[in-house]
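My main concern about presentation is that the manuscript never shows what a single data entry looks like. In essence, backbone conformation is discretised, so a fold becomes a row of integers matching the chain in length. An entry of this sort, consisting of the sequence and the corresponding backbone structure tokens, reads as follows:
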Amino acid sequence: MSKTAIGAGDALIIVDVQNDFCGGGALAVPDGDAVVPVINRLAGGFPVIVLSQDWHTPGHISFASSHGRQPFETTELAYGTQVLWPDHCVMGSAGAAFHRELVVPTAQMVVRKGFHPDVDSYSAFVEADHETKTGLAGYVEERGVKRLFVCGLATDFCVGWTAMDGRKAGFEVAVVEDACRAIDLDGSLAKAWRDMSDLGVRRVNSADILPA
């Protein structure tokens, strides 16, 4: 695979590396902790770094407990089919905090998402209604960013949706595959890669990224 040199127009988007998505968390992604050292190494090479943080209200509409249902069942909401999750990343909770070993002191912005009680949010750009914007596109555009490198948790949900919405917003996008892990719920990982590829999202490895 060819090497990719990082320059002034590049940004690293670190998606939801939070306690609830890592080992022992309420919605732990298999092997999720493994992304932390990879991301820590990557971060030093990027001029623009953004962290996204799942930040749900108590009793959020995406929680199975809010519907008297079991986790991972689905329901239909105003904006479409919603996977019902275990309660996770409740605002201000220990589970919502970033992984204690994630060390990214040069990050300049934290985008909190999912704080609207009646709308879920996977993407760091647009909430699940495909209308409510987080402001991330405007921020990175004003910073002169043209190309996004997306990593974090989970490949088939928040990372994938962030990557695809980044493409829809007009950015070049690459997903750093070894800096991500997936839930893979009923084939969701393969579908996510197909959908990303269809939009022109590239797959890269951290070893092939040359820091600025």
